Amino acid sequence: MISDSALSFLKRLLETPSPSGFEEANAQHFREYVAPFADSVETDRHGNVIAAVNPTAETRVMLSGHIDEIGFLVHHISDEGYLYFRPIGGHDTVVIVGQRVTVHSSSGPVPGVIGKKPIHLLTPEERDKGKVELHDLWIDLGVTGGKDEVAAAGVQIGDCVTYSVGFQQLLGDRIAARALDNRIGAWVVAEALRRVKELNPQVGVFAVASVQEEIGLRGARTAAYGIDPHIGIAVDVSFATDYPSMDKRKVSELKLGKGPGILRGANANRKLADFLVKTATDAEIPYQLSIAPNGTGTDANAIQISRAGVTTGLVDVPLRYMHTPCETIALSDADNAAELLARACAKLTTGDNWIP
């Protein structure tokens, strides 16, 4: 069951913009939430926040959920005062058109909209082209005084930009928000740490709010090197397939509200995956199986090949509409993911053998 304080923490994570390379504000939220129950809280030079319970234990377990999100970076300001931008992470340009955005300037947030030539005015060649190119879009701040007015607002080259949307409660336990990929993973590892603290684990549990996942799993790579875990479990979102247009012949079958996914595949140690399944079964925690024959594009990739190799797993929160401003999950799946990780960590011992 998600407490009021835990839900409030999740809302703060979702309402606070933190694109890759600009995670400081959400790192602070993470530190504040874990401080009352963590035995240690550190922030490394890369920006990863590492909170631990029983940190001096012989066996170390790393739980990683990234706190960055996709966004944009201002790279050109026209004489008329329009902003041109480049992507932080992966975007679908169809989604970008017409969105309200916020430019995070040194003087504070500046609202804007993403503009494009109207369909009525497109040439036949432009219509046939179909795909919208990023350089054909711009951010309109509503300026009338050109570049000088933009500068007066504090906006400059290198400022980050995010969609101007936040937490939205839908029917039942469904919520929608920008950046559930992967604030929900950061929330899960923090909440798992709080719960495992009450279970007195024999192993050291390190909950990591990792940075820069969306641009190459960079934070998990440095955090794993520093922690040197024996076991590493990433928590991220995965594609739900319970809505129109999703072909279950091509992707794993995952549904909202049916529990977190437990990965089976090359990016997950088979013994650890089986252990997570047994833990869920014994505790009557609902779960689903997800698969990835190769890498997963998550922190699990970086953790698995750190140093001489790490026993690695991945727990997924099923998500609809990935990398859009309206990503959607079931809160019960996140709650069950946190409970699964807490119970799993509480069962681990130093003598466990995870060698395949």
Describe it.
The protein has 356 residues and is α+β, with helices and mostly antiparallel strands. It has 2 domains: 4-69 and 178-347, Aminopeptidase, CATH 3.40.630.10; 71-163, Elongation Factor Tu (Ef-tu), domain 3. Helix content is 29%, strand content 27%. It has 10 helices and 17 strands. It has helices at 4-15, 24-34, 93-96, 124-129, 146-152, 180-197, 218-227, 270-282, 299-304, 331-347, and strands at 40-43, 49-53, 60-66, 71-77, 83-88, 100-105, 108-115, 138-140, 160-163, 168-169, 174-177, 204-210, 231-239, 261-265, 288-292, 311-319, 327-330. The protein has an 8-stranded mixed beta sheet, sandwiched between helices. Helix 1 (4-15) runs antiparallel to helix 2 and helix 6 (180-197) packs across helix 10. The two termini are 35 Å apart. The mean pLDDT is 95.
How many separate structural domains?
2
Weakly predicted, low-confidence segments: none
Give the tally of β-strands.
17
**What is the level-2 CATH architecture name of the largest domain?**
3-Layer(aba) Sandwich
- Would you tell me the overall average pLDDT? 95
Helix content: 25-40%
Could you write a compact summary of the structure shown?
This protein is of the alpha+beta class.
List the helices and strands and how they pair.
Elements: H1 4-15, H2 24-34, E1 40-43, E2 49-53, E3 60-66, E4 71-77, E5 83-88, H3 93-96, E6 100-105, E7 108-115, H4 124-129, E8 138-140, H5 146-152, E9 160-163, E10 168-169, E11 174-177, H6 180-197, E12 204-210, H7 218-227, E13 231-239, E14 261-265, H8 270-282, E15 288-292, H9 299-304, E16 311-319, E17 327-330, H10 331-347
Parallel strand pairs: 3-12, 3-13, 13-16, 14-15
Antiparallel strand pairs: 1-2, 2-12, 4-5, 4-9, 6-7, 6-9, 7-8, 10-11, 11-17, 14-16
Helix pairs in contact: 1-2, 1-6, 6-10, 8-10
